[in-house]
Amino acid sequence: MQLLHRSWQRAWQGAGCTGPGDALAAELLACYREPQRRYHTLQHLSECLGHLEAVLDQVPDPAAIELALWFHDAVYELAGPGAASNELRSAQWAVQALLAGGAPPALARQVHDLIMATRHDALPATPDQCWLVDIDLSILGAVPARFDEYERQVRDEYAFVPEELFRRKRAEVLAGFVARARIYSTPFFRDRLEAPARANLGRSIAALGVGADT
């Protein structure tokens, strides 16, 4: 919890917020503890913040990126009509909370756009988005044991999805990352994680057993 406390205080103050932020931090932490989550938990948040701390002296707008990490999975509904708007609702919450805390409107808009970049439906468009998305995707290049745990956690989150359908959809998602010319946009993460990520993804796709006839 020391990392989480340190990170929140650094980000909140770095954003120029003057109002009390402890209650908001506690509310966010409670979100990451929701029972429907298996991967998008405090473990994921802590891993992301740990990666950010390693590159704080390299990233542009560190407060914006750190706050975007805190909020990027704050709303996480797995099924139902709201599931498709998790990132949007997380981004809207971030804007409301940051403006209420006294952050500049430009920074609140930046955090909103950063969170929306974690939909991973398009390549990151700005340097700060490149860093944020690389951090969010760092799990793909984790050591094999952690990557395999991640895959089990994702399956557990979607336990309500029939096995055959899950395998097909999961293989499509993973293949989408493999098809990119580069998974990671920043030299820092590309040099360290690109090769391990491609190895992990290839192994997982093979394990899903989705053939050309499906």
In short:
With 214 residues, this protein is mainly α. The chain contains 10 helices and no strands.
Q: How are the secondary structure elements laid out?
A:
Blueprint: H1 2-14, H2 22-32, H3 42-54, H4 62-71, H5 86-101, H6 105-117, H7 127-136, H8 144-157, H9 163-178, H10 187-208
Range of strand content:
under 5%
Alpha carbon gap, first and last residue: 45 Å
Structural class: mainly alpha
Q: How much helix is in the residues?
A: 55-70%
> What Rg is obtained from the alpha carbons, in whole angstroms?
17 Å
Mean pLDDT: 96
Output the keywords.
0% strand; 214 residues; 10 helices; globular; mainly alpha
Describe the protein in words.
There is one protein chain. The chain is built from 10 helices and no strands. With 214 residues, it is mainly alpha-helical. The protein is globular. The model has no long low-confidence stretch (mean pLDDT 96).
